[in-house]
Amino acid sequence: MLHWVVALGLGLLGAADGASRWVHPMAQPLSLDRHGPFVELADGALATLDAQGIRISRDDGKTWSEATPVCKGINPQEPASYYLLRTERGTLVVVYLNFTDWRFAWNIQKNEPLETCKLEVWAVRSTDGGKTWVDNQRLLGGYNANFFGLIQTRTGRIVVPLEHLANDPGRLVACSFFSDDEGKSWKRSNWVDLGGHGDHDGAMEPTLAELADGRLLMFIRTSLGRFWQAVSEDGGRYWRIIQPTALDASNAPGYLLRLRSGRLVLVWNRLNPEGRQWPKTTNPRATEVPCSWHREELSIALSEDDGRTWTQPLVLARQPGGQLSYPYVFERRPGQLWVLVGFAFRRDWKDPVPLRVAIDEQALVRELKAK
């Protein structure tokens, strides 16, 4: 995967020994052995997806059914590479990176991707509760990497934010795909291009949410020390309001979600650990400018006004010397948030220590107000 290729050479790891993890006492451990993604079915049961297919749990993920096959190419080892949605009409939709023919190659001398790069985005759907799957189709060819979210808007439109590897210069650009017929057919938006040059530069790993007035808000990972945002006034067809946010961030993704209370929640890695500076790393293959790769702390914030302002961030967890990144947020019940971390390890990828916690929304509000 593109975002594994140079990770260990970009200063992701701190100087601590990585032996101890701190988790905010508000966050309670979940009895789960899966990272997600999850979706709630009509009867309240939980569904998830893995390489073998779709599975169902009726005890909040403690046990799972045998898998019903869905499609080939799903890679559960790569977080933020596929999502599952249940529409208001009951259709199940999966959008996924298809690893069947995955190839990544980079010309180091030219700092450009080779034409042989391939990681396509596909989609498939089920109209009978997951028993059978139809309309398996490619949405986006070439090379595409991680993305964060799959939503249905109040109009019934399905929208997914994606990133795509461009060249001349080599960089990532963002877009959205949308469907107005329950995932049977799809269209692409315009590209959101922030420039940059490198295999971890540009407009990366977007996440999105619908606002109260029906507009869509996209947060975009960058190498520029903060999230940039794009706003669509037509349901993700065009992104025409593009600007930096006030939210500092390292070169790492975040997860944005609209809660049933109407609040927005964001989970991400900040530019610096709380109370200290994180050194910026220079690596021309990765980014055009020096940037922070801080991932030892995971933070959370809320917005009561559709992202115009945000609470002070609250640190959810720390992994000194290791990493807590690529978050996924799922609202299991109104006000009950599940936060699961895709990359959670002590020292390196071979020493994983999962982090999966539940947070009560009202407890979070109280903690944030007390800061």
Beta-strand content: 35-45%
- Alpha plus pi helix count: 2
Radius of gyration from the alpha-carbon trace, in angstroms: 19 Å
Q: Tell me, rounded to a whole number, the average pLDDT.
A: 94
Task: Using the alpha-carbon principal axes, give the shape.
Answer: globular
Could you spell the SSE succession in H and E letters? HEEEEEEEEEEEEEEEEEEEEEEEEEEH
Structural class: mainly beta
The count of domains is 1
CATH topology: Neuraminidase
Give the number of DSSP strands: 26
Low-confidence stretches: 1-18
**Strand order of the biggest β-sheet:** 1-23-22-21-20
Proportion in helices: under 10%
**CATH class, anyone?**
Mainly Beta
User: Which sheet architecture does the biggest sheet show?
Assistant: 5 strands, antiparallel
Overall CATH architecture: 6 Propeller
Rounded to the nearest angstrom, the distance between the terminal CA atoms is 38 Å
Indicate the topology:
Elements: H1 2-5, E1 22-23, E2 28-29, E3 38-40, E4 46-50, E5 53-57, E6 82-86, E7 92-103, E8 106-107, E9 112-113, E10 118-126, E11 134-140, E12 151-152, E13 158-166, E14 171-179, E15 187-188, E16 204-210, E17 216-221, E18 226-232, E19 241-248, E20 255-258, E21 264-268, E22 297-303, E23 314-318, E24 323-333, E25 336-345, E26 356-360, H2 361-370
Antiparallel strand pairs: 1-23, 2-26, 3-4, 4-5, 6-7, 7-10, 8-9, 10-11, 12-13, 13-14, 14-15, 16-17, 17-18, 18-19, 20-21, 21-22, 22-23, 24-25, 25-26
